[in-house]
Structure formats: structure tokens, C-alpha cells
What does this fold into?
Amino acid sequence: MSPHADADPESASLLKWVPCPGHEEVQCSELSVPLDPAAPELGTISLALARRPATDPSARIGSLVLEPGGPGLSGVEEVLAGDELSTPEVAARYDIVGFDPRGVGRSEPLWCFTEEQIGRYLDELAGVSWDLDPSTPQVTAFAQTAASFGQGCQSDNPALLQRVGTRYAAADLDVIRAALGDEKLNYLGWSYGTKLGAIYADMFPHRVGRMVLDSAIDPALSLVEFNQGQSAALESALGRFFDYCSTVEGCPLPPGREAATAALKGFLLSLPVDRVTPETLTRADVMAALTTAMYDPGEYFPQLTPALADGINGHGRALQEIGGNYGEQKPDEPSNFLNALYAINCFDSPPTPDVVGTAQLAADWDRNSPIFGAPNAWGGLRCNIFPAHSQIGPRPVSAPGAPPILIIGAVRDAATPIEWSRRLADDLASAVLIQVDTDVHSVYPQASSCVATLVDRYLLSGEAPPGDTSCAQ
It folds into this structure.
């Protein structure tokens, strides 16, 4: 992607804010941005925005733009829900602004698979997850389904597909900044939102205002490296669940991590792949429940123990309910979360290995991550034959000249390992790293009062910690 000039505030689309239907306290708008900033003749696309005005207008600092992650999660839905996106002190002095990045939610959503096709894909993925032989009929069928995802994206919106990546979203973010009338971008991103924010800072360092990156993803990671690192972090969290489970009444797994792993994998392999009825508990259901639970152990470990016991005894509803929370925002309209997640990640990274190479990855990762490793390896196959990839692949960012940027990393985060936050902090010239002794994915504003104090001081006064620091939960 070509280097970008700053968005011109005078030529930016004027935002017309109106009450959001069903959410009168929130204002909604749409913003036209170039489909391709380097080729304005290709026209524009429309981005959806929502904002909660500062509750103390007389003390208003400006706008704080949020990106909740994914990729594929809707910033508009987050603002509509209003679920404590910041502390009240920050909400008093900032307009809290959410947006749907291109290809997501209400912003020209990509629909590569229907919801039924997504379900079938996930079932097939679970069916081959621990199959380490690339020549089986199941793997051959899954490879065809994985390849058809990219074909579906191409059929849905070929022009957008060629421009759906994070660097294009960063250029859009600068248009949003200008349209809001802000000289600098004040930004709060979680998870994938940290990758978007870091790339924005690298592209437009002189436009960075106050930027907080919570639970970081290193933009230098390829998709294979991302999947491998996340598999290891999820497996570590699962080991902590085994330890927890062994101390509570009704744990359905034997004591000891090795024995518990073997029992859990045996349970997974005993489950059907295909969903015969809505009540059928499938392998995909249980993998979704396990993944969800590792993101927030404090909330989900107490639920997962009895849910697993029920599932092993033939009653899968509780596991299905936990798994149904993965990526769930409960929007008013059907969500394209997984479509956007898969497409943007494929676009941002070079092609992943073919079937033979993926089977080798699955075998390698299975040795150290016997529950999450092989499934994550096979999940990358959809990006092997994908019709669009960024001309600028994963690479380190530095953002020379940017003001202090806060990075928050939880030391036992199962979704974005702490090593990624540390690496991003090393790469960004002005980063200040806050390491938090917790296992929660996405810390601010609720998981640590220490973090909330540091972040609020920074957002409200511009005062960053003088150097890297740490917080107890």
C-alpha cells in the first residue's frame, strides 16, 4: 500500500449526527472514505460511527476513538451497548466514538460465507483438527471448504476484498480523525485494535494524540506466528484450568495436567462432528467453550467445570452457551464477525502453508499444545489459497516522533501473550509498557484499579508513567 498523506480536515465529509434508533442517548453517523486513497477514481465506501457525547461538555477534551478488536468486532455495537468502555471520569471529558472498520458490521460488510456455511466450516475444522495425515478424505474435503471461503469473499465484493486490510483501515482512521475535527487522534484499542492503532501511529506519528493499546498484537507477526503463539498461551491457560478444576467439587477430569489433557482430548474425539439437531453437542461447540473460558478465567472457570461435567454426561447445553459467547456482541442485525475476522487476517499476512505444510505444523504444534495447537494450525489453511494479500506484509512498527503511547499487557493473557506486548513496546519508539499481574484479556477499565488510575491520568492530563511499570490486579 502506498504511503498516505494526512486527511484534509477541510475536505473531509461533514459528519451529521442523529439519534441512533432504539438508543436515543447515542448519536449515529456515516462517513464516506476513499475505497483506495491511492486511486480516488475508484470511489468511496461508507463507514458507520456512533458516539456518546461527553457527559461534562464544559470540560470536554475531544473525541476518544475506540476499536474493540477482532478483527471483526463492531465499535458501533460497543458504543450502543455502553458497557463501561471507560471510567466515568474519562466519559465525562471525551466523546466516546466507535466505528465499524471497512468490511465489518455496518461498514460495507464482507459476506464470504453465510451463517450456515460458517457453521459447516467450523464443524469440518473440528473434524480434522487432530488429523495429522494430509491425504485423508476428511482433510481433502476440508481443504476445499477452506479454499471456498476466499472464493466467497471474491464473489461478494472483489473491489473491497483487495483493500480490506489493516493499513487501509488505518488510513480510514485518519479520515475519521479529521471529520471529527480533531488535530490529533486520541485512541483506545483492545486486542486487534492495538494492531490497528500501532500501524496508524507508524503511518501518521505526528497525528497521534493520546493512545492506549490494551492486550497487544505485534504487527510484525505473520498469521502462522500469531496462531502458534496464541495456541501456546491458550494451552498454558488450560493447564491452569486443570489445576483449578482439581480443587473443586465435581471436576470431571482426573488430577494432573497430563492425565486431564488426555481425558479432555478423548472427550473431544468422542463427540460428533456434524450437528444433527440444535441440541447436538459437537466438537466445535466444546472448542468454542474452551477458547471463551480461557479469555476470562475468573468469570468462566467456575462455569466451565460443571459444564464439562454435564457435557461428558450427555448434556451439552451449558457448554454451548459458554461457546456462544465467543465474539458475541448480540447486534440487532446478523453479525459478519467471523467473515471479517478471517478475511482481514488472511489479507494482512502472506499465504499460509498448503495442506502438506499445514499438516506438518499441526503435528509440530500438537506436541506442545495438544488441545489448541493442531486446530489452530488447520484453521490457517483458509489463507493458503486466498485471492488477496497486502503488498506490505507483517513488519515491525516504530512511529518515530509520536508522543508517549501506553501499552497494557496481562502477564497470563491467553489470547494475546504478554510477549507480544513486550515486543511491541520495544519496537515503538515512545512506548510505555504497563504489565499487569492478571489473566484477563483486555484489562482497562475494569480488571485493574491500578491500570485504570494510570490510564485515566494519561488520557485526562497527558501524563504518562515515566517508564515501564507494573500493576497488581
Q: What stands out?
A: The first helix runs from residue 75 to 81. Residues 326-331 have pLDDT under 50 and may be disordered. Residues 15-473 form a domain with the Rossmann fold fold (CATH 3.40.50.1820). The CA atoms of residues 137 and 183 lie 57 Å apart.
